[in-house]
Each structure stands twice: as C-alpha cells, then as structure tokens.
Amino acid sequence: MSLYGRHFVEMNDVTADELQLILKHATELKTKQKRGEPHRILEGKTLAMIFEKQSTRTRVSFETGMFQLGGHALFLGSHDLQVGRGETVEDTARVLSGFVDCIMARTYAHATVTGLAKYSKVPVINGLSDYEHPCQILADLLTIQEDKTALRGLKLTYVGDGNNVANSLIIGCVKAGMSISLACPEGYWPDSTIVQKSKQEAAKQSQTVEVTTDPSAAVKDADVLYTDVWVSMGQDEETEKRLKVFKPYQINSALVAKAKEDCIVLHCLPAHYGQEITKDVVDGKHSRIFEEAENRLHTQKALLSLLLSKESQTLSASRKN
Ligand code: CP
Ligand code: NVA
After folding, report:
1. What angle do CA 183, 289, 19 make, to 5 degrees?
2. CATH number of the domain that residue 94 is part of
3. Ligand nearest to the CA of 139
4. Atom 7 in ligand 2: which residue has the minimum CA distance?
5. Are residues 289 and 148 both part of a single domain?
6. Domain range for residue 123?
7. Structural domain includes residue 6
8. pTM
9. In this predicted model, what pLDDT tens digit does every residue of 70-87 receive, in sequence order?
10. Fewest CB atoms within 10 Å of the CB: 114, 162, 194, 263?
C-alpha cells in the first residue's frame, strides 16, 4: 500500500485501507502538532494551489499545512494565471509540474481537475470541483472517528442538496464501512452512478445507501447529521428557486431530536444560518463543526505527506496495527 506519487482527485482514488492509513497518519500529525514536536516531512517541497473559486478553509489549511511540514505553498488565482487568458489546462499542468512537487486545484468543471491530473508529472489534489470535494470528507471522517471511536457500522444522514460534498460523502462513508441516508428534494439528488455503485459496495459490508425526499425518515437512528449550503459556488443565479425548494431541508433542533440522542452534527462550512442549519444547532452540544474545520489541516497534512514522501507511508504503515 503506497500513496506515493498518486493523485487524489476523487474519493475513489483511495481504497478503504488507504483511507484508514490517511486517517491514522492524520492523528499522528495532529498529536505531533499539538505537542509542538517538529514534523518537517516535506522540507523543500512546493505546492501550487490553483483557485477558480473562493475559499477560506481549503486555502488556509493547505498553505499552513505545507508550512508546518517544512514546505511552501503558492496561491495562484485563476485570473492571475495565463489559463485565465486561454492557456490550456494541459500546458498549465505540464509547466507547473516542472516547477512544483504537487498541485491542488479548486475548479468549476470536474474535467479541469482531471485534466490537470492527466498531464501533470506530480500529484494533483482536488480542492473541490462541481462534482466532488474529497479533501472535505477526510476531515469529516476523522472528526466522526474522534467522537465515536470506530466508523464501521455508524449511520450518517445528509440533509439538503445532493451536491459535490454529498457525492464524496457517499463514497467516503461506504469506504469507511458506514451506512448513509440522504434526504434531498426531487431533482437535487446526488449523482446516480455514485449512488448505484455505492449501494452495491455497501451491501457487501451489510451497510446501506438510501436516498429519500423525507428528512424525518432519513435521520432515524442517525449517529451523524450533516448538511451543506443550499446554493453552491457557481449556482448564484438559482438562489431564489433554491431557497424555496430547500426550505423543508434544514437541520434544526426539532430534526436533531429525531436522530440518536448522542448524535453529532457536521457542516463543511461556510454556513448560511437560517437556511440549511440554525445557529442554535451550530453552537449546541451536538455540534462538532469547528473541530471538523480544524481537521481539514490535519488530514490534508497527512494526505500531502503520503503523496509526496516515500518514507511517510512506510512509517505510518509499520505502525498500522
Ligand atoms: N469547506 C470548505 O471547503 O471551505 P472553503 O470553501 O472555505 O475552502
Ligand atoms: N457545496 C459547496 C461546498 C463549499 C465548501 C460549494 O460547492 O460551494
């Protein structure tokens, strides 16, 4: 098992065992960072970060993470790059990968990030595309594991838009041996191919993947409740329609009361209070939302270390059991 030199563009780019390895490595790095122990695994390495869309968490966690690992990160707004003036994704990937050790990209079209991966000589990480947000799910799973100890057999319920986060979450939960139910309005369901394939994978482990339009039914027996914005980046023109369609798909205290008593609530953030979630739930006792945000840092440091350092995985793998 080696993640060295690989891309992380979709949740399916890692196996269930590799996912566990990333989480284990993240825990190690988190402990080291909290104890103030040096872990300059990526001394002298550079990460290029391409952003077609805005970001708070992804940008700052990757940039800080590279710094803590002894490396360096470059912020590249797509308007500043020549790609904004028509240079091809192919040429951009070829050129950048001659300079840097890794490329992270936040894009509109998923094809842009897969295109970068196709032509890059160095690992490419998806920092969110319209189709998937795999880095987010690493942080989500670590947060759940920290609270519940073991992931296998837990039930997560996602309420809201069947978007990029939902797509990656389905794959991630199934890889972690969890069941997932999603409550989304008609017409806003997650990617049907992901749902179908994940149902088959889940069944092999006696777990389930269910999609419904009914939030109350979906949250029954849930260990984890999860939501994301009703209007993703790039969908601003649909705002008025979406605010109406998604109204019944809010995580509020009444919905939380229908899940397990010790359930935790997650949100990838940014949150829109009074839309997909209420402020009392974000600030309430079930919320692990800000722990989740912090875990972006620790899980991405683990990911970067494993993709960019051969030694990293040998160390982590040898401690696996
Ligand atoms: N959750 C997340 O990706 O946040 P940002 O958009 O701030 O990066
Ligand atoms: N679904 C949201 C996630 C933001 C982190 C979006 O794509 O805007």
Report:
1. 80
2. 3.40.50.1370
3. 1
4. 232
5. yes
6. 11-133+295-313
7. no
8. 0.97
9. 999 999 998 889 998 999
10. 114
